[in-house]
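Below is the data:
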Amino acid sequence: MTKKFHWGITQSVKIDCSVPKLWKIIEYLNGSIFRRKFCSWIKEVGYDLYINQLNKPSSFVSWRLSEKEDKSSITITVFPYLFNRGYKIVNFLPFYFIVKPLLSKYLSSVVGGLKLYAETDKQVEKNYFGKHVWFS
């Protein structure tokens, strides 16, 4: 259960591989140090966790996999801490015009990188889908 977050950002992609293969390749790759507290873990289905950089509030993240006819689908939903707690009226504009577009771009890169790697077995270069102000 999330900690009273108002808004989430979701990205999904269909991938031409099996769920077991996709499950094996899911990982975080960047130079930042994050603390992860897993809330649920269902093998080959997904997991939920709270994630934060040291000395920063936690965001809630949900990863889900599904399979249909030898193809997989991955969906990542993030309830970011930034401008996502407290008064909705105060946080609405910063969330929808700053946080949501930046996080959507990042998640699109994450699912795109997973798709590229799962379908080609080729390592995805850093910033392959473009640089990101928060995570590059």
User: Anything to note?
Assistant: The longest strand covers residues 59-68.
